[in-house]
Amino acid sequence: MTMLVTGATGNVGRHVVDLLARAGVDVRVTSRDPASLDLPAGVAAYRADLTDPKTFEHALRGVEKVFLYTQPTGIDGVVEVAKAAGVEHIVLLSSLAAAGRDPDHWIARYHRMAEDSIERSGLSWTFVRPGPFAANSLQWAPSIRAGKPVRLLYAHSYLSSIHERDIAEVSTRALLRDGHAGARYHITGGDSITQAEQVALIGQAIGRELAFEDLTGDDARAVFHERIGSRLQELVRDGIIGRTDAPDIVETRIRYYVEALEGPVEIDRTVEKVLGRPARTFAEWALDHKADFTN
Ligand SMILES: NC(=O)c1ccc[n+]([C@@H]2O[C@H](COP(=O)([O-])OP(=O)(O)OC[C@H]3O[C@@H](n4cnc5c(N)ncnc54)[C@H](OP(=O)(O)O)[C@@H]3O)[C@@H](O)[C@H]2O)c1
Fold first, then answer.
1. What end-to-end distance do the CA atoms of the chain give, in Å?
2. Is 224 in contact with 254 (CB distance < 8 Å)?
3. Which of 12, 56, 69, 198, when mutated, tests ligand 1's pocket best, judged by the most ligand atoms within 8 Å of its CB?
4. 193-250 pLDDT per residue, tens
5. C-alpha distance from residue 158 to each of 153, 199, 291 (Å)
6. Which atom of ligand 1 is nearest to the CA of 96?
7. 50 CA distance to ligand 1 centroid (A)?
8. Cα 43 to ligand 1 centroid, rounded to whole Å
9. Reported pTM
10. Which domains does the chain possess?
């Protein structure tokens, strides 16, 4: 059985590669810069870009299953190339937003474009839809390493952050075993705590009390805009959002933080159903990432 992993340098993809290689699968990966990859023995790397589907023709020859990173630009072409190569099943790294209440949300639209294309293709699929990644907290690492307070947008808002290894394990299970075709797996972390509590847990993991700044209202808007401004420009360029959508995106995120101040968010049990054990907690993630937060 030959499987191809896209996004193999990513938070999730790198674990999918390791898990498949350890399971004895013939694994290939693609990257836009394969020379930069550090891969387990026996894993072959191909240069390919999801926005340019024909670059996948070579890499997909003889492949039966694919772990696919979402990139709506070029998705129809990639799916076509996969079908022509004889691929049977695609596991898509989607997002919980794709199942959300707001059909106009850009993250939902972004992932739905890929999901819809795969559904239309007639190929067998599994959509893995994670909530917020615990790995998003790595953006705090430079401040923590420098001994500065962490800037939190609505520090007391709750979220249920998922460990990237849980996302990878669910995805790998869907690649290795039958019974996952047509499933949309909504997955969250094993607990729901505030961002301030997450910072405290990172502090416990590295043995140091950490300070944070609580940014709300216009201060939070400004910092959020600063963080995602260049990403929004890319989305406008790729036609995923309109030129005038950016202010709405900022307001939607602020609304989300304010709603999340009310209390813990729902924890989904899908990880447990699929893997037979509960999802990892944020405290476990912080211990696994101690090195990222220390000099
Ligand atoms: N962060 C969250 O809270 C969250 C929540 C739900 C869903 N998600 C979704 O999860 C995904 C991010 O996953 P991640 O954190 O594992 O990724 P990541 O660490 O951001 O890495 C991105 C990966 O995607 C690959 N990639 C990007 N553009 C590509 C292209 N045009 N062609 C081929 N490969 C491309 C990169 O490969 P090369 O650079 O090697 O080519 C890299 O391996 C996104 O789709 C995001 O929307 C994120």
1. 42
2. yes
3. 69
4. 999 999 999 999 999 999 999 999 999 999 998 888 888 888 888 888 888 887 788 8
5. 11, 12, 25
6. 6
7. 11
8. 20
9. 0.96
10. 2-293 (3.40.50.720)
